[in-house]
Design a protein that fits this description.
The complex is a heterodimer of chains A (about 140) and B (about 200). Among the domains of chain A are: about 35 residues; about 30 residues. Chain A is about 75% helix and about 0% strand. Chain A has six helices and no strands. The longest helix of chain A has about 35 residues. The radius of gyration of chain A is 49 Å and the shape is rod-shaped. Chain B has about 200 residues and is an all-alpha fold. Chain B has one domain: Butyryl-CoA Dehydrogenase, subunit A, domain 3, CATH 1.20.140.160. Chain B is about 75% helix and about 0% strand. In chain B, helix 1 runs parallel beside helix 3, helix 7 packs antiparallel against helix 8 and helix 7 packs across helix 9. The two termini of chain B are about 25 Å apart. The chains are: A mainly alpha (about 140), B mainly alpha (about 200). Chains A and B meet through helix 1 and helix 2 of A and helix 1, helix 2, helix 7 and helix 9 of B.
Chain lengths: ~140, ~200
């Protein structure tokens, strides 16, 4: 018989002594003396208090860690990013409509091409070169 | 308990909703398991208290159906830790008392060496007398066999739950349980037949 896999299959004689042993263990718990029972109650209460204290300590130390320089740096970066985003949002919101309209208008040419005579002249380029030469010659003669 | 040896006990079938109520229902049995393993009331109490603290701290938010196997796993580990530290302490004490004997040449190290769990012989005798035949029989088993027997037959954990609590395979649980039953049968069967 193999009672390892299923204790239900244990034979009667084996069952009897196991039953007696288990019954004795049960009665030892039920009849536990008052001192031990009281100490156990106290131990449970202390365990609860200690666990609560450790939990609180864990939160406190976590908060302290959060306040150390690494966390401070992270905090500073976070504030900078948030401030930048907020300012940008505010600028967008406070921009006057005409400014928004102006920045969104299509590109307009500031200098008109007609104001540059060289580009709009109908004469040949050699004409201007000869005019320049005559002007230079006149300057030369007047100097001499 | 679910064990066939005591099928009428059903107090653990309904697990209490709160951790405090659960631990209140477990503390006495856990104390018995720890006391049988450690043979010392204070150490057993410390083991149970540490186990309860861990349960409060780490597993309060787990489903209450997981609490029992977790509880016995923590207790089992805690008892094993106590055994290890006691063994180390014994070795250190033996080492130092040997040195002392070498120095003084007049004191017998065997007289100075604490007996089981650091108790003096007279205290150990008192402790042994206060322990029942059952306690002593289970206490004489190796730790794993003790746990296999108590968890399976007394606590009614399944083989899988026992394996989880002991941190071993189900095959190992079956082996430990088989050996435990063989040993206990030798000492306990005549004892109970004598009192019947």
């Amino acid at each position: 018989m193999n009672i390892m896999n299923n204790p239900n299959k244990s034979n009667d004689s084996q069952d009897a002594w196991i039953k007696s042993a288990v019954s004795e263990l049960d009665s030892s718990v039920e009849n536990m003396d008052a001192i031990d029972a009281s100490r156990l109650r106290t131990a449970r209460q202390m365990a609860y208090r200690e666990a609560e204290a450790q939990r609180q300590k864990g939160w406190a130390s976590g908060f302290n860690d959060w306040l150390n320089w690494k966390s401070g740096l992270t905090l500073a970066c976070t504030i900078a990013v948030v401030a930048t985003i907020t300012l940008n949002l505010n600028l967008d919101q406070k921009a006057p409509p005409e400014l928004i309209a102006k920045t969104t208008q299509p590109f307009t040419q500031k200098v008109k091409i007609e104001e540059i005579p060289l580009l709009t002249a109908k004469e040949d380029l050699e004409f201007y070169e000869s005019v320049n030469f005559l002007l230079w010659l006149e300057d030369k003669q007047s100097q001499s | 308990m679910n064990s066939p040896a005591n099928p009428t006990i059903t107090e653990f079938d309904a697990v209490p909703d709160t951790m405090d109520a659960f631990l209140a229902s477990m503390e006495k049995r856990a104390y018995r398991v720890a006391y049988i393993a450690l043979s010392d009331r204070d150490e057993a109490l410390d083991a149970v208290q540490d186990t309860m603290m861990k349960m409060f701290l780490k597993y309060s938010d787990k489903p209450n159906t997981d609490w029992r196997p977790l509880f016995y796993k923590i207790l089992s580990n805690r008892i094993t830790d106590s055994h290890r530290s006691n063994t180390l302490r014994k070795r250190l004490q033996m080492w130092f008392t040997r040195d002392k004997k070498d120095d003084e040449g007049s004191v017998d190290a065997i007289d100075l060496m604490p007996s089981r769990l650091g108790e003096q012989p007279q205290n150990q005798l008192q402790s042994d007398l206060s322990m029942s035949v059952l306690d002593r029989s289970i206490n004489s088993l190796p730790m794993r066999q003790q746990q296999a027997f108590l968890f399976r037959h007394w606590e009614g954990l399944s083989t899988q739950e026992t394996a989880n609590a002991m941190g071993c395979s189900t095959g190992s649980v079956k082996t430990h349980l088989s050996r435990a039953l063989d040993t206990l049968k030798t000492s306990l069967q005549p004892h109970y037949e004598h009192y019947e």
